[in-house]
């Protein structure tokens, strides 16, 4: 019998893409409510990072979501920090790698929710997903997300909510998302494109500490025309 077929390679796995999520509290709230998060919490815009404007945000804030343009310099710096032995990460940090194309917005939502599971009204599909993946590695969490039709459907609900026409799923997007949350007394930046979470040091107030960290991130950009946005997860504004 010929052994020629023994050298045939398995077909390459096709990359999964989702339609990019608009940086909009309405879109993000559509996602989390579809997942099963209770309506007593929700996302709201952060209009500025100065103390006076931060005081207008519904509190307590559980996490921040930051939208920013790609920067090779910033990305390399973050990768170096994330991989450093000096970057001490609590085992209680919930982190998932991003393997789905254009899903960074919903990835930031997962990081915001995943690191606040004990304090948020979580049930339904998102509670089921967390129960399934909480003990898995960041890569295995991502693999489970790729197979989860309910999570994909919740993302799709939010992606259809944007005020602008949604691009195709495999379109090249111009911005990226990360999330900020406090775990075991330290502030973390959670970016699924990084090797792991980035410990930004001790903190007690995610809104104030996250705002300082985001200001530091923004300082990497010299172009004043560059657009950023910050969205906070806290009490629902409808309550």
In short:
InterPro entries: Papain-like_cys_pep_sf (IPR038765), Peptidase_C12_UCH (IPR001578), Peptidase_C12_UCH_sf (IPR036959). It comes from Coemansia spiralis. It is built from eight helices and six strands, in the order H-E-H-E-H-H-H-H-H-E-E-E-H-E.
Question: Mean of residue pLDDT?
Answer: 88
Low-confidence stretches are 162-171
Topology pattern, helix = H, strand = E: HEHEHHHHHEEEHE
Q: Number of folding domains?
A: 1
CATH-defined fold name: Ubiquitin C-terminal Hydrolase UCH-l3
If classified by CATH, what would the architecture be? 3-Layer(aba) Sandwich
Q: Compute the number of strand runs.
A: 6
The CATH C-level name is Alpha Beta
- Return the structural class: alpha+beta
Describe the biggest sheet?
6 strands, antiparallel
Query: CA-to-CA gap between the ends?
Result: 72 Å
What's the assembly state of these chains?
Answer: single chain
Query: Strands of the biggest beta sheet: in what spatial order?
Result: 1-6-2-3-4-5
Please report the number of helical segments. Answer: 8
Overall 3D shape: globular
Strand content: 15-25%
Radius of gyration: 18 Å
Helix content: 25-40%
CATH superfamily: Peptidase C12, ubiquitin carboxyl-terminal hydrolase
């Amino acid at each position: 019998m010929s052994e020629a077929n023994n050298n045939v390679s398995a077909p390459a796995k096709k990359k999964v893409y989702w339609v990019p999520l608009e940086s909009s509290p309405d879109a993000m709230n559509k996602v989390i409510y579809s997942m099963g998060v209770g309506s007593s919490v929700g996302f709201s815009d952060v209009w500025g990072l100065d103390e006076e404007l931060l005081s207008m945000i519904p509190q307590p804030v559980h996490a921040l979501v930051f939208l920013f343009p790609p920067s090779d310099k910033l990305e390399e710096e973050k990768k170096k920090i994330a991989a450093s032995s000096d970057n001490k990460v609590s085992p209680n940090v919930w982190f998932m790698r991003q393997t789905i194309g254009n899903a960074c917005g919903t990835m930031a939502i997962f990081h915001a929710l995943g690191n606040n599971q004990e304090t948020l009204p979580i049930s339904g599909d998102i509670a089921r997903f967390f129960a399934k993946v909480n003990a898995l590695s960041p890569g295995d969490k991502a693999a489970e997300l790729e197979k989860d039709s309910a999570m994909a459907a919740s993302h799709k609900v939010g992606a259809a909510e944007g005020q602008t026409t949604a691009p195709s799923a495999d379109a090249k997007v111009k911005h990226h998302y990360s999330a900020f949350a406090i775990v075991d007394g330290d502030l973390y930046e959670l970016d699924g494109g990084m090797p792991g979470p980035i410990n930004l040091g001790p903190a007690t107030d995610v809104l104030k500490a996250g705002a300082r960290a985001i200001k530091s991130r923004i300082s990497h950009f010299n172009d004043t025309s560059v657009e950023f946005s910050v969205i906070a997860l806290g009490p629902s504004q409808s309550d």
